[in-house]
TrEMBL record:
Positions marked as site (Important for catalytic activity): 228
Keyword check for Coiled coil: no
Binding site for substrate: 195, 228, 330, 343, 417, 445
Protein name stated in the entry: Glutamate carboxypeptidase
C-alpha cells in the first residue's frame, strides 16, 4: 500500500459524518430532469456542486447547453466542469457523473420521503439519487477534501464533468464532449466513470464492457380502418396475424436469435475470457432472487453471465395498435407495430445488423403471401463498448480495491448500456474505466433507492486510492 493511503483513509473515516451531511444536502434538491417543472431544481443542483467545488479550491465553471430540443421554453441544465491541479508531471484523470435524478414520489411506494436522506439502523441511506449518482459524484469532492485536511499532496490532476440530463437521454452532452475533447479534456490520460453497481453486495467490481442496443419497429398494415371480426373475419388479410407470425420468427424460446447473419458476427469466446467467469461472485440464486422466479434459461452461472454480457439477445417488447385493455373487443386492428430490440456485442456492426434484420423480415413476410404491407426500421442504435482491463487505468483500480476491501475485484461487463462511456472513449481516444460505488441492492431508478453508508465511505476511500495507484502505474499502453 502506498504510504499516503493510511492517513487518507483515516481522514475519510474522521470526516464521515460531514460527507454524509453533504449527501443529505444534495439529496434534498429534487433535481428530476424528466419533469419540466423541476428544471429549476436541476439547475439549483448544478449550482450547489459549483459552489462546493469552489469551496474546495477547484477551478470550476458552469457551461450552458442552450435550449432543450423540442421544448424551446426550457433551458438545459448546465454542465459543471472542474479542474483540480495542473501539474505537467502528474497524470490527468477525467471523471464523469450526473447530478440529475429519476422522478420519485412518496406515493409510488417509498417508505420514507424520497428527497430526505434517511438512515436506518443497518446503515442504509435511503433517498432519491443517493446511489445514482449523487453519492459517487460527491465521492470525488470528498476525496479532494480529505486530502486537503490530511495535508496530503493530491496524486493526479483531476478534470470533472458533471451533467444534469443523464436520466433524460443526456441531451446536448455528446456534442459537448466531442467539442471539448481537444479543449477542456485535452490533457486527460484516462477516464473514470462511477455510475454503475457491483454485481452483488459483497465484492467490488471493475466494469470493462457494455452491450449496445438497436431498437426496431415492425409495422404491418392493410385495411383502411379498424374492422369488425364478425363482418370481415375470414375475408381479409389481418395485419395482427402477419405480425405475430413474423415476430415469432425472430427468436426462439431458449433465447436463440433466429435472424441469419447475427451469430456469425459474434466474437468467439477465448480461453482467457472463459477463465474470468469462474471466480465472479454471482450465483444462480442471485439470478433467481432478482428474477423473482426460477425461470432462468441456463443451469449454470458461467453461461448465464455470458448470456447477459457477451452474447447478443433479442427481446420482444410490445405491439402498438393492438387491443390490450381487459375484456373482449372483437376488433381487427388495421395497423399494428411490433417493437423489439437486439442487445449487441463485439463484433456486431450496426449497419450489418440492420441489414440482417431487414432481410429476415422481408423473407418471412414473403412466405406469408399476404396482401398487407410490412416494413421494419431501426428507431435508435447505440454501439457496444469493451475496454482493455489490462490497461494501467484498470490495474490501478484493481490495486485500489485491494487496498480498501482486501479482495481482488471482479472484472465484469454489463448487459445494458451507458452511452456516455463510448462517447468519452471515442472523443478522447483514452481508456475508460467504470468504477462503481453502490451495490446491486441499491434500487437505482426504483422506489426506496439507497446507498449503504459502508459503500459510500469505503467508496470515497476507493476513489482516492485509485488516484494514488494511477499516479504509480507504469505506462503500458
Ligand atoms: Zn446514473
Amino acid at each position: 500500500m502506498t504510504p499516503q493511503l493510511e492517513p487518507y483513509f483515516k481522514q475519510v473515516d474522521g470526516l464521515a459524518d460531514h460527507f454524509i451531511e453533504r449527501l443529505r444536502q444534495a439529496v434534498a434538491i429534487p433535481s428530476v430532469s424528466a419533469e419540466d417543472e423541476r428544471r429549476p431544481d436541476v439547475v439549483k443542483m448544478g449550482h450547489f456542486l459549483h459552489e462546493e467545488l469552489k469551496k474546495l479550491g477547484v477551478e470550476t465553471e458552469l457551461r450552458p447547453l442552450g435550449k432543450q430540443p423540442h421544448k424551446e421554453h426550457l433551458d438545459l441544465p448546465p454542465i459543471v466542469l472542474g479542474r483540480y491541479g495542473n501539474d505537467k508531471n502528474k497524470r490527468t484523470i477525467l471523471v464523469y457523473g450526473h447530478y440529475d435524478v429519476q422522478p420519485a414520489n412518496k406515493e409510488d411506494g417509498w417508505n420514507t420521503e424520497p428527497f430526505e436522506l434517511s438512515i436506518d439502523d443497518k446503515g442504509r441511506m435511503f433517498g432519491r439519487g443517493s446511489t445514482d449518482d449523487k453519492g459517487p459524484v460527491l465521492g470525488w469532492l470528498n476525496a479532494i477534501e480529505a486530502h486537503q485536511k490530511a495535508g496530503l499532496d493530491f496524486p493526479v490532476n483531476l478534470l470533472m464533468c458533471f451533467e444534469g440530463m443523464e436520466e433524460h437521454g443526456s441531451e446536448g452532452l455528446d456534442d459537448f464532449i466531442m467539442e471539448e475533447a481537444q479543449k477542456y479534456f485535452k490533457t486527460a490520460d484516462a477516464v473514470c466513470i462511477s455510475d454503475n453497481y457491483w454485481l452483488g453486495t459483497e465484492k467490488p467490481c471493475l466494469t470493462y464492457g457494455l452491450r449496445g442496443v438497436q431498437y426496431y419497429s415492425l409495422e404491418v398494415s392493410g385495411p383502411g380502418q379498424d374492422l369488425h371480426s364478425g363482418v370481415f373475419g375470414g375475408t381479409a388479410h389481418e395485419p395482427m396475424t402477419d405480425l405475430a407470425k413474423i415476430m415469432s420468427s425472430l427468436v426462439d424460446v431458449d433465447g436463440t436469435i433466429k435472424i441469419k447473419g447475427i451469430a456469425e458476427q459474434v466474437a468467439p469466446v477465448t480461453d482467457e475470457e472463459k477463465g474470468l467467469y469462474k471466480d465472479i461472485a454471482f450465483t444462480m440464486d442471485n439470478l433467481y432472487e432478482s428474477l423473482g422466479s426460477k425461470t432462468g434459461i441456463f443451469p449454470d452461472k458461467e453461461r448465464t453471465l455470458m448470456g447477459r454480457w457477451r452474447y447478443p439477445s433479442l427481446s420482444l417488447h410490445g405491439i402498438e395498435g393492438a387491443y390490450s385493455a381487459p375484456g373482449a373487443k372483437t376488433v381487427i386492428p388495421a395497423k399494428v407495430i411490433g417493437k423489439f430490440s437486439i442487445r449487441t456485442v463485439p463484433n456486431l456492426d450496426i449497419d450489418e445488423v440492420n441489414k440482417c434484420v431487414e432481410e429476415h423480415v422481408n423473407a418471412e413476410f414473403a412466405k406469408l403471401n399476404s396482401k398487407n404491407t410490412c416494413k421494419v426500421f431501426c428507431q435508435h442504435a447505440g454501439k457496444w463498448w469493451v475496454a482493455s482491463p489490462k490497461h494501467w487505468n484498470f490495474t490501478a483500480a484493481a490495486k485500489a480495491v485491494e487496498s480498501v476491501f482486501k479482495v481482488k475485484p471482479d472484472l465484469t461487463r454489463e448487459g445494458g448500456s451507458i452511452p456516455v462511456t463510448l462517447t468519452f472513449e471515442q472523443a478522447t481516444g483514452k481508456n475508460v474505466l467504470l468504477l462503481p460505488m453502490g451495490s446491486s441492492t441499491d434500487a437505482a431508478h426504483s422506489t426506496n433507492e439507497k446507498l449503504d453508508r459502508y459503500n459510500y465511505i469505503e467508496g470515497i476511500k476507493l476513489l482516492g486510492s485509485y488516484l494514488h495507484y494511477v499516479a504509480e502505474e507504469p505506462m503500458n499502453n
